[in-house]
Amino acid sequence: MDEKSRNRLIVRTSIVGIAANVLLAGVKAAVGLLANSIAVVLDAVNNLSDALSSVVTILGAKLAGKRPDKKHPLGYGRIEYLSAGIVSALVLYAGVTSLVESVKKIITPEESDYSVISLVLIGVAVAVKIFLGRYVSAQGKKADSASLVASGKDALFDAVLSSSVLICAVIRLTVGWSLEPYVGVVISGFIIKAGIEMMLETVNDILGKRTDPELSAEIKKLVAEEEGVRGAYDLLINNYGPNKNYASVHIEVPDTATAAEIDRMTRRIQSRVYEQTGIVMAGVGVYSYNTGDNDASRARDAVRKIVLRQEGVLQFHGFYMDEEKKDMRFDVVLSFDADGAAVLETIRREVQEAYPGYSVLIASDIDLSD
User: Domain 210-289 is classified in which CATH homologous superfamily?
Assistant: First the structure.
């Protein structure tokens, strides 16, 4: 789906949400005031907050769709994460407000008076909210919009809340028990939990999450399938909004490859990765490996054993040895809980003991995607 189609889908879905929530808010407010039900009135207020969430989603989509400029050369896509954060904050606010009002009604009870018509209207509202929640969530996944997905989840929670109000109303009419405020406390807890989870998910998107293992494996496979590439390492994917991903990777190529050959190779890799995944391969770094040199091959195997026996080491790659210049270099991937400086110093000392006179250059890589 292209950017324009995606933005149209987000705006269209949000407008449907605004219209439905404003209508529901009006109906519930009338029912709540006539029946003297704080639960129904709060439900109406919650619908208004949902309408506001949809407005925020539209604004976020419009701003995120702005063309890149000199100040923001990679576009404004991350604004959508901010709008999703605002939506989650509104959900959290609605939950806390419902909890406070429910507790107040437990302390100071009030009599409610429901009619059959009011029960029917609440029942219809529940059905509308369920449909709206499923519709918005589905469209959000289709458009890869965190804001829409969050709004859809909120709508489904509202349906649960309205259902509880309906059940309480029926119990009130048939048995005479007033359970609204107690059920309101329980439902408020679920809404607060949902708001916190949405907020945490948005924070993770803004901070940057670990690359999906399946996507990482797919990209590395595509890269490694290129003729002349012996391995793909250090894959890093930077996200600048939904469907806006830029990546870099290191490839291992023979030391006999010319600059022209490597240039053709990297361009084919960039084209293939974009066609298959939609990710822009912004940078392709190069490791060279020794060819036709048995001493270097034996040294690589020996150094690999030294490196991999150290605690906290996840991977060893990018080895190259220049016997003439007495130069040796390689990369080590360390786990996040390893004492990186100590591990690297141990590796350097043991390698230099095994190969005295060599200068050893070790690059420490972050465990990004494996």
Answer: Cation efflux protein, cytoplasmic domain (3.30.70.1350)
